[in-house]
Amino acid sequence: MEPHLAAKIAAGEVVDRPASVVKELVENALDAGATAIRVDVEGGGADRIVVADNGRGIPAAEVELAFRRHATSKLSREEDLDTLCTLGFRGEALPSIAAVADVACATRSATEQVGVEFRIDGGSLEERPLARQVGTTMVVERLFARFPARRKFLRSRGAEAAACVQVVQPLALAFPEVQMAVLVDGREGFRSPGDGDLRGAALAVLGRDAERHLLQVPTTVLADDSGGDAVEVSGVCSAGGYHRSSRTAIHVLINRRPVQNRSLSFAVVEAYGSALPVGRQPVAVLDVRVPPSAVDFNVHPSKLEVKLLRERAVYAAIQRAVRAALAQQEWAVATWSDGGGHAESTVSMGGERLAELRLLGQAGGTYLIAEGDAGVYLVDQHAAHERVLLEALRAGLARRSERQLLLEPVVLDVPPETVGVIETAAAELDHLGFDLDVFGPRQLLLRAVPGVLAARQPERVLAAALAAVGTGGHGLVVKEGASWAEQLALVLACKTAVRAGDRLSETEMLALLRQLGEAELCRTCAHGRPTAILLSHAHLERQFGRR
User: Is the pLDDT of residue 40 over 50?
Assistant: First the structure.
């Protein structure tokens, strides 16, 4: 194979669009110790890309060497691959970019008085001295101009420019002490503060609307078998009331490198459990540190995917850290926007307890109305009772639940596949409080029900609940790996809770408020919907023109 053909093929693995060029050059700038990086993108990056930094620069004698394939100063021996501390290490980026575009590198090392400009234009090389400050400026022009077959697969200029911005943002999260700016056709598309504060970098990426909803994730450390630190997790995550439609706002950084790992992203989602509505995803930026020898970044051409030696430990540490952050959150309820609509935000109750609220009554047979120092609370009686029952059933799974014997056994008709599950899940159902036996090929005999559900006559809905769990058609938030009995508890809590339209006595309403306040996750029901909303005094005053 001709050398130039091999170079083109290798370039295809590293550079497939303008965003790939931006990523490689920004990573090089970070490895050079830059504290300020500016990216200019013109024509979606296909026309021109400029990446300027104030890093250490490249010595004049090594500039041409930097454009040779597999030439790198980041590795000196094979063992260094096991302890990588840099973003780049293969020595492929610059020669791959130069193979498909015209490149100019202007640089000056801190140890030299004069810099150098090195140009590669269509295979011709040109080098000349240049007076400039310490650092490096890379100019990439006419990307894929000599390869129309590659260029035609690029998307619109706007889409390619957006991809260039998006590839810089995770790096800004990984290096919050570095100020990064991206200009698209002369207009600022992104800027990070560069003050070393991860929260500030996260707001630059996520948007200012996330400011009131981000929780600090406490530093969580899991030790290995020898007592050393195996995993350390810190960062920020959103409160349960703030969420997105996709997982694109979940950023996991492994040793300061943005990675794509479905398992670790799901660890974040699972940590929220039913604190999120069905189909919604949390927002999080997690900085995960593991020993360099416990991670392999050399498994993907763009180094986005990694192999972890102790992935289960990392998974557990992420969940523990996120749950610790959510546990620190004071009891919060959804608020109303000034426009009168529901706003996806939360406010602290300032230490108020539900049991301490003054009950005002019931609206529409559906919502409890209560008053506290923060304002007027509307509590969805079905969502609240569903959460109370679910937490009680979960507690029964952990330790044998009290049960209530039925006056007469009840025969339930169920699908044949459900009968088989009952036989294998007998112990869990016993802990849950059910005395349930197989009574035929399609029949079950029910003798006792959980005490917490006794007043709600669960035998009326048990057959439907069993069928819903068997088909997965319940529409509830179920964590991965949840047992059959845990899923049944979710469905039963929903089906046996008080319904909208049920009239409750004052005693029942007070008891429900007290029980909800004692529940572990009182903010949402099993569907992830809020159990209460707050009409603050300030909001009421604005609505009545008092302020």
Answer: yes
Looking at residue 225, its pLDDT comes to 63
Q: Classify domain 3-191 by CATH architecture.
A: 2-Layer Sandwich (3.30)
**Burial track 319-354 (b if 16+ CB lie within 10 A, e otherwise):** bbbbbbbbeeeebbbbbbeeeeeeebbbbebeebeb
Q: What architecture is the 335-533 domain classified under in CATH?
A: 2-Layer Sandwich (3.30)
Tokens 């609220």, residue located: 357
Parse the chain into domains and list their residue ranges.
3-191, 198-328, 335-533
| Neighbour count for residue 187 (Cβ, 10 Å) | 8
Q: Tell me the three-class secondary structure of 223-248, residue by residue.
A: ECCCCCEEEEEEEEEECCCCCECCHH
Instruction: Please name the CATH architecture into which domain 198-328 falls.
Output: 2-Layer Sandwich (3.30)
* Contact indicator for 516, 379 with CB cutoff of 8 Å: yes
pTM: 0.68
* Pairwise CA distance, residues 519 & 330, whole Å: 13
Summarised one tens digit per residue, pLDDT across range 288-299 is 999 888 887 766
In three-state secondary structure terms, 402 is coil
Q: Examine domains 3-191 and 335-533 and report if their fold is the same.
A: no
